[in-house]
Amino acid sequence: MRLTLERRRWLWAYAFIAIPLLFFLAIRIAPVIYAFWVSLHKWDPIALNRPFIGTENYQKIWSDEVFWHAFRNTWTYVLLGVPISLVLSLLIALGLQKLIRYVGFYRVLYFIPYVTSLVAVGWVWRWMYMPNGFFNEILSRIGVGPFKFLGSPDTALYAILAMTIWQGLGFQIIIFLAGLESVPTIYQEAAAVDGAGSWQRFRDITFPLLNPTIVFLLVTGVIGYLQVFTQIRTMAPTGGPLNSTMSLVLYVYQQAFQQLPSKMGYASAITFVLFAIILLITLAQLKLFSRENNEY
Amino acid sequence: MSIDPGVSIDPQSAALSIAEGGAGNPRPHMVAEQRRGWKHRLARWALEAILLIGGLGMIFPFVWMLSSSLKLPGDIYSLNIIPPTFTLGNYREVLEQTEYIRWFLNSLGIALVTTASVAFFDSVAGYALAKYRFPGQNVVFILILSTLMVPTEMLVIPWYMMSIQFHWTDSYWGIMFPGVISAFGVFLMRQFFGGVPNDLIDAARLDGFSEFRIFWKIAIPQVKPAVAALCIFTFLGNWNAYIWPLIVTRSEEMRTLPVGIAFFSTESGSAFHLIMAASALATIPVLIVFLIFQRQIIKGIVLTGLK
Q1: B146 contact residues in A (CB cutoff 8 A)
Q2: Which structural domain, as residue segments, surrounds residue A208?
Q3: Could you give the ipTM of this predicted complex?
Q4: Per residue in A52-83, pLDDT tens?
Q5: CATH, range B95-305
Q6: The pTM is what?
Q7: Do A274 and B149 touch (CB under 8 A)?
Q8: Which residues 6+ apart lie within 8 Å of B172 measured at CB?
């Protein structure tokens, strides 16, 4: 009797999980294997002949200058974007936490960019960056400029980065605020009684207790910045000038969907490089988390 | 100084107090600071001023977008925020030249259907993983979890080939299929269903409820905030999605709003009075929805961020 009951529950569980499981196998896992298969071929969807070329696509990556450009740029987006946005959002969250009134109003102000479409706000920023756009008009009033912003290989990447940081800041602020809320106040007060200054209280109490929040934002931030695409495609559609804003995902998109003949095989090989990077970061995160748990 | 490691953080209550809009629990040192003299009051004013300037800076691009979209083509380079002459002509022109209404409805329909599908299937799967013990459970869980590490951008090539093979390109199903179930949501729902007491479920079983009815009538009402959060995330993500709809759509009628706006803007050259009107048309509906539901949306984001 007990066995049949157990079996019946198994059946229910399988029924519940069946469609999602099939979906993940067909739409998320099989395509990875298929993409790997494609990456071993010279693959043009229109051509009838798609020769197997082994690891040639992967070897080609090494000597592809544009790939390395995109690779370096992507890391610039990550290594500048993540720390700057985390420091800024933490500072703003600390400020907002100290406010007594209108907190909801300020929170909405900072959060608005996060809910809007990257394409639309990308165009707004592109407009403000124009040679005769808002920024240059303001700068010319104080006698500086004009700057090319998106038009110069020296500044275009930073112009896009500024917009990206602006867009994601609200999310990070909200998560930091929640993290700060969950830091128990008793420690703060005890330390204040002991004569600790506010910087000391932040460094020795708030910051260590914020660790899980910081790790979460670090990982989501790094993975997000590694995949920058929409803002570049909107503000510098070809990844230019001179490939100075090209990111890995934009390069994949160009190779697979914009070039004729389409290089699907080569583009797939590049996605595996990106995949390897993201996998390594995720594993590092798991390790970081488990080490933390050991400490406790 | 050593810190008691046994501090438990309760994400739900933190989320609630954040979302209520207050400064959270009243902090005694805050009250004390208020009583201290003018120096502290000055510091507080300075802080408020900095945060206000920063906040206005955050929304300035939207102000500039609206301002440009309401200006005559000849006034577009004027630095006045208030347009010298107000015009709705740019909006009329965008609505006439594009399939805006169609794109809007495409985006809305796709986002709504996808959200409903994700909410249902992710809840069902999360519930099965949290509240049943069955052979192969760990394998299933790890399988689903591992898909979280595969970025969407990586899969667009095989998805595109699938779409061609099955003639899904340029169809609603073609735009939607990659997102109708989300691994993130399964994981999220499993976490939250884990907090539903087993006694509740066993009691319903004794009352003769079927397993599906227990899920639907007993378990789901317990995790409503999580379902709401998942819905918000899924809706926003699909409404703003760009790379996949860009790849899979061909005809103008099948475009989603971001894809349509992107094509229109690119083709408009430097007619920024029109581009800003188009951007405003893409932005304003979301802004209105956000301003109405901002409390719930922020609460939802906090809730998922802390799990």
Answers
A1: 29
A2: 64-295
A3: 0.88
A4: 888 889 999 999 999 999 999 999 999 999 99
A5: 1.10.3720.10
A6: 0.87
A7: no
A8: B106, B109, B110, B254
